[in-house]
Amino acid sequence: MTDTVLVLNAGSSSLKYQLIEPDSGKSLADGTIEQIGEPSSSVADHGAALQAAFEALSADGIDLKTCGLVAVGHRVVHGGAVFYRPTVIDDAVIARLKHLSMLAPLHNPPALDGIDVARRMLPDVPHVAVFDTAFFHDMPAAAATYAIDRELAQKWHIRRYGFHGTSHRYVSEQAAEFLGLRWDRANQIVLHLGNGASASAIAGGRPVDTSMGLTPLEGLVMGTRSGDIDPGIIGYLCREADMSIEDTEVMLNRHSGLLGLAGERDFRALRQRIESGDSTAQLAYDVFIHRLRKYVGGYLAILGRTDVISFTAGVGENAAAVRLDALRGLQGLGIEIDEDRNAQPANGARRISTDDSSVAVLVVPTNEELAIARDCLIAIEA
Ligand code: ADP
């Protein structure tokens, strides 16, 4: 029987699951349980969510006891400095992960809930944690270090960790394969633009910079997160607007970005408003594009020579206007988008640059679940 891996991605109010054959890359079933713990919802907690996922799988004719399940893979956002390889979970790992929740209070606790419940419900297979920070673990110190008091940073483990690493690695591998380049020789920029958004510069398979930092708040403008701001804004609001630290964190993580600027976090809806002449939506879009171009320019300079720029995730894969606006007018830097290719919707990896563009520009669908499933096999075979 072919091996399968169940991949779980537990957020604060949602649980995404997918059953995958890592060898073929085939997805056998997937789904999302939403509104976990919300007052109007029938799903009280992560235990109930996982139960609902099992029921949905069994309605699809899948029995986890007889489907060749060899591992359960858990997406964990923050691995801190400790975890940078796919890690088979035991009680000692759980204890260290709990400690790391301090670095990622919004993201790690729901994943821990998911792990706890899944280990109890599926006790006979190994559970593996795969970390969003892992790929960036060896980023050069110049890119990973904040210019703040050195001892304070060391004591509190403050560095730039980077996130979406599973996606940046997977997409860069796919891009190299698509172009017939060796991953460990290619210089790449990956733009992961979803609800969360991040950019990375990868030189010869090694990330040399990424836009997210200690937390997934730094960098690009996102659906609800501000990305880069002057850190002075936080002290100013605490002092003058009588906001608490928690207030500012909620504001920057949940009420900023496109939502804060235009009252709309969904890119499709934002585009519709722009098309009907809404200037507030237009400004939100312009801020988003301006920031993105700043990162692209910065990464071109860091890499020196760039072979390929890839767009991925919900916005990157689907919003042709964003891709064009992000790279418009850069012929002088060897980047030329073919507007017809860019406008063609298609599945799978594809080129959207002209044949003359010296930097290839691609759209590459990400598949974090498949990458996690394959990482699980590596962990359990190790
Ligand atoms: P997440 O970070 O939650 O995984 P996704 O990668 O699914 O996010 O991206 C979600 C974003 O992608 C939303 O803003 C959504 O509007 C946008 N999106 C999805 N499809 C399209 C489309 N066809 N055109 C423009 N934006 C799209």
How would you explain this protein's 3D organization?
The protein is of the alpha/beta class. It is built from 15 helices and 12 strands. Helices cover 41% and strands 18% of the residues. A 6-stranded mixed β-sheet has the order 3-2-1-4-6-5, sandwiched between helices. Strands 9-8-7-10-12-11 form a 6-stranded mixed β-sheet, with helices on both faces. Helix 11 (279-303) crosses helix 13 (320-327). The radius of gyration is 21 Å and the shape is globular. It catalyses: acetate + ATP = acetyl phosphate + ADP. Homodimer.
Fold topology:
Blueprint lengths: L3 E7 L4 E7 L4 E8 L12 H14 L9 E8 L10 E2 L2 H10 L7 H14 L5 E5 L9 H4 L5 H6 L9 H15 L7 E7 L3 E7 L2 E5 L21 H9 L4 H10 L2 H6 L4 H9 L3 H25 L4 E5 H6 L1 H8 L11 H5 L6 E2 L8 E4 L4 H14 L1
Parallel strand pairs: 1-4, 4-6, 7-10, 10-12
Antiparallel strand pairs: 1-2, 2-3, 5-6, 7-8, 8-9, 11-12
Helix pairs in contact: 10-11, 11-13
Distinctive features:
382 residues; ATPase_NBD; alpha/beta; 18% strand; six-stranded mixed sheet; 15 helices; cytoplasm; binds adenosine-5'-diphosphate; EC 2.7.2.1; Acetate kinase
Order of strands in the sheet with most strands: 3-2-1-4-6-5
Number of helices: 15
- Mean pLDDT rating: 95
Q: For the terminal residues, how far apart are their CA atoms?
A: 21 Å
Binding site for ATP: 16, 192-196, 266-268, 314-318
EC number: 2.7.2.1
Catalytic activity: acetate + ATP = acetyl phosphate + ADP
GO molecular function: kinase activity
